[in-house]
């Protein structure tokens, strides 16, 4: 898991640099959400088809998508830089929550063709205000669609904090539609992994939908165009940076002797190679 | 259940849907009240009994859900044919149609077949209440990534539906609702359309080309018959709004030298403007007189009592033909 | 081996091209690594911490602090370290 988190962080950082120098147009950082994304991505396994929103870069990396393919659309070269079916990771959907209905329809379609596998839909906290999200939860419930909704609540929808976006938790709202749900703090990848495994098992065994709310942190702005320091308290930002899930997990694994310097060096080399690939593809 | 020339539009579509579902297991129907009730216009009558509720699905009351889940079903390998109950209620589904269905092929770099038909009863003339008599093909004509079908007779509707279901690209399939149960349509020239997407000359003539689509062609053909002793009218059924077969219209205008476009929808920024502008760009040398459009004014479709005045009638068509040919 | 390169003012996105150089955080002769913040620029929309796009030694500050510049102009030059 640490490997994926370090790779995601490296790609995310490099993409940020590339945008800063004008080599790509826009970047939406997932910095701070690596534990939520890698933990959940590994828990759901290789088979489930994923309908992402647009910030699940660490999930993409777990699914084998390389940095250059991931970044291509943010450089204006394509709408989607990877082969969706090959990776089971469908194109990013920039219209909020539109993918939630697609995921439910896909699950229904699979069941009708006797191919019942769990479909995973990633969605953010702000997107849960869109009508399509409510429609998708209701439809999934009524159709008993085998869908796991993974909602990353990173606390912000651009400048609107989650507590102003909704009165209840997202997990509570799902229950209102009759969808089993959990809400966990997702800064620890191991805990996130275990919770998501439980959620997946529930969906598979019950052949009915569920939603897991992963409470996480958006360290950066909404995009590189977003001057988020204008609306975030310095304390909140400082805490977010201090609780960096990637740093913390690395420190934990080193302290527990799960990884050593040699391992870390080899991962760093791979990350550096991926960063060089990005530089070459977009800045030279 | 098999379509014949004597069928009305609803029966022809019912037959076509039945044939499609019989031969291809991946075809499924989704719409409000299409299963148990057989559809508010009975177009899907008997299909749930025949094919079961897994394949003929009574949708929840949410147009965005109908289109959104159909997109997902299509991505999973099915060929969904969904129904929006009336054209006036398509708007909650606009987002899924325009930002998703129309764009998914491009987003996937063409590496996906998005089979998706959205059937939409369209148009007025049935004394319906608000929102049930609109003609909104222009919104979809304007969206790249969508095919827009607008048949005007039962045989075309069946053929165009069969073509649309496996096209691999989303189709907004309009069905003129006042023709659903009309059993004595105006006579049309029996020749086959040149291709699946072509327009069709439905009446041969030499003095003027009148192009239309949907139910208003009944008025156009009647008008053509009534003026026949004075004006020899050629009538073209456009059949597809997008892609638009301008070639057939141009070859007709080459012979007649005059063009009148008639449509039920509001004329301002309507589809007729697109056709006339294209002919102006490509065929102005062919014209003996200025082109015209006969369409609804830029006003909301009125309450039923005022409908007759708002809709284009046979005498309206005759009037403009005579002005143009006089 | 070094190589003097022009570092240009980037596109800022959203149609923004003009920027005020608020302050320089490096001087001529400073060594920078790719990713170090070298200057603060301000567009109509927001403040931008400009980072070094290449590693090397700052050779020449072309646009002085408190001047307005535009995307594509040479901002500073760098003796690039490969």
Largest sheet of chain A: 5 strands, parallel
Largest sheet of chain C: 4 strands, antiparallel
Q: Please state roughly what percent of the residues of chain C sit in beta strands, choosing from under 5%, 5-15%, 15-25%, 25-35%, 35-45% or over 45%.
A: over 45%
Proportion of helical residues of chain A: 40-55%
Distance between the termini of chain C: 7 Å
Largest interface between protein chains, with number of residues from each side: A-B, 32 and 34 residues
How confident overall, as mean pLDDT of chain A?
97
Q: For the CA atoms, what is the radius of gyration of chain A?
A: 18 Å
Structural class of chain A: alpha/beta
Summed over residues and divided by their number, the pLDDT of chain C gives a mean of 93
Fill in the CATH topology of chain A.
Rossmann fold
Rg from alpha-carbon coordinates of chain C:
12 Å
User: Strand order, biggest sheet of chain C?
Assistant: 1-8-6-3
Number of domains of chain A: 1
- Shape descriptor of chain A: globular
CATH class of chain C equals Mainly Beta
| Helical stretch tally of chain C | 0
Examine the coordinates and then state which fold CATH places here, giving the name of the CATH topology of chain C: OB fold (Dihydrolipoamide Acetyltransferase, E2P)
Strand segment tally of chain C: 8
How far do the termini of chain A sit from each other? 32 Å
Characterise this structure:
The complex is a heterotrimer of chains A (284), B (326) and C (82). Chain A starts with a helix and ends with a helix. By secondary structure, chain A is of the alpha/beta class. The longest helix of chain A is centred in the last third of the chain and has 23 residues, at 261-283. The model of chain A has no long low-confidence stretch (mean pLDDT 97). In chain A, helix 10 links the parallel strand 6 and strand 7 (210-215). Helices cover 51% and strands 11% of the residues of chain A. Chain B folds into two domains: 9-179, Rossmann fold (3-Layer(aba) Sandwich), CATH 3.40.50.970; 200-325, Rossmann fold, CATH 3.40.50. Chain B is 35% helix and 18% strand. In chain B, strands 2-1-3-4-6-5-10 form a seven-stranded mixed sheet, sandwiched between helices. In chain B, helix 3 (63-75) runs parallel beside helix 4. The model of chain B has no long low-confidence stretch (mean pLDDT 96). The mean pLDDT of chain C is 93. Chain C contains no helices and eight strands. Chain C is globular, with a radius of gyration of 12 Å. Chain C is an all-beta fold and 82 residues long.
């Amino acid at each position: 898991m640490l490997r994926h988190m370090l790779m995601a962080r490296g790609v995310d950082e490099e993409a940020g640099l590339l945008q800063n120098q004008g080599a790509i147009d826009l970047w939406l950082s997932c910095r701070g959400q690596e534990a939520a994304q890698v933990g959940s991505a590994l828990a759901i396994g290789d088979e489930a088809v994923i309908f992402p929103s647009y910030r699940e870069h660490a999930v993409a990396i777990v699914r084998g998508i390389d940095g250059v393919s991931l970044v291509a659309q943010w450089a204006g070269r394509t709408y989607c830089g990877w082969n969706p079916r090959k990776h089971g990771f469908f194109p990013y959907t920039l219209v909020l929550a539109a993918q939630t209905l697609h995921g439910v329809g896909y699950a229904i379609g699979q069941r009708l063709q006797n191919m019942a596998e769990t479909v995973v839909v990633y969605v953010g906290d702000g997107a849960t205000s869109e009508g399509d999200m409510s429609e998708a939860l209701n439809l999934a419930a009524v159709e008993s669609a085998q869908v796991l909704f993974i909602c990353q609540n990173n606390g912000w929808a651009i400048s609107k904090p989650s507590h102003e976006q909704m009165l209840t938790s997202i997990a509570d709202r799902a229950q209102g539609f009759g969808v089993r749900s959990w809400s966990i703090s997702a800064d620890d990848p191991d805990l996130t992994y275990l919770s998501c495994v439980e959620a997946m098992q529930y969906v598979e065994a019950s052949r009915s939908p569920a939603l897991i709310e992963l409470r996480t942190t958006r360290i950066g702005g909404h995009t590189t165009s977003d001057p988020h320091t204008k609306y975030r308290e310095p304390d909140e930002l400082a805490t977010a940076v201090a609780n960096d899930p990637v740093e913390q997990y690395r420190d934990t694994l080193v302290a527990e002797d799960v990884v050593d310097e040699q391992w870390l060096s080899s991962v760093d080399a791979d990350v550096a190679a991926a960063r060089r690939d990005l530089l070459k593809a977009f800045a030279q | 259940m098999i379509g014949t020339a004597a069928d009305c539009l609803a029966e022809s579509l019912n037959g076509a849907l039945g044939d499609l579902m019989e031969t291809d297991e991946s075809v499924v129907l989704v719409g409000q009240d299409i299963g148990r009730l057989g559809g508010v216009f009975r177009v899907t009558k008997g299909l749930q009994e025949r094919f079961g509720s897994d394949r003929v699905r009574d949708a929840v009351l949410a147009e965005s859900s109908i289109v959104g889940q159909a997109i997902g079903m299509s991505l999973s390998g099915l060929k969904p044919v969904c129904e929006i109950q009336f054209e006036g209620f398509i708007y909650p589904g606009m987002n899924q149609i325009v930002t998703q269905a129309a764009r998914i092929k491009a987003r996937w770099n063409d590496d996906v077949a998005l089979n998706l038909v959205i059937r939409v009863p369209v148009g007025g003339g049935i004394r319906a209440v608000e929102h049930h008599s609109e003609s909104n093909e222009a919104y979809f004509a304007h969206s790249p990534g969508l095919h827009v079908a607008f048949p005007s007779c039962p045989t075309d509707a069946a053929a165009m539906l069969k073509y649309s279901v496996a096209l691999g690209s989303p189709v907004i399939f309009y069905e003129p609702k006042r023709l659903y149960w009309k059993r004595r349509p105006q006579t049309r020239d029996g020749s086959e359309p040149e291709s699946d997407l072509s327009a069709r000359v439905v009446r041969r003539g030499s003095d003027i080309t009148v192009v239309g689509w949907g139910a208003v062609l009944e008025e156009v053909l009647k008008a053509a018959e009534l003026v026949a002793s004075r004006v020899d009218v050629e009538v073209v059924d456009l059949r597809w709004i997008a892609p638009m077969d301008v070639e057939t219209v141009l070859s007709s205008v080459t012979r007649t030298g005059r063009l009148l476009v008639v449509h039920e929808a509001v004329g301002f920024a309507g589809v007729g403007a697109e056709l006339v502008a294209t002919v102006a760009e490509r065929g102005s040398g062919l014209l003996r007189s200025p082109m015209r459009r006969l369409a609804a004014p830029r006003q909301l479709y009125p309450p039923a009592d005022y409908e007759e005045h708002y809709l284009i009638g046979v005498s309206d068509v005759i009037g403009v033909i005579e002005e143009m040919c006089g | 081996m070094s190589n003097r390169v022009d570092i240009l003012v980037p596109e800022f996105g959203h149609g923004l091209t003009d920027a005020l150089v608020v302050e320089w955080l490096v001087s001529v002769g400073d060594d920078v690594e790719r990713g170090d913040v070298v200057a603060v620029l301000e567009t109509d929309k927001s403040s931008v911490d400009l980072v070094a796009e290449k590693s090397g030694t700052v050779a020449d500050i072309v646009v002085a602090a408190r001047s307005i510049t535009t995307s594509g102009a040479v901002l500073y030059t760098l003796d690039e370290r490969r």
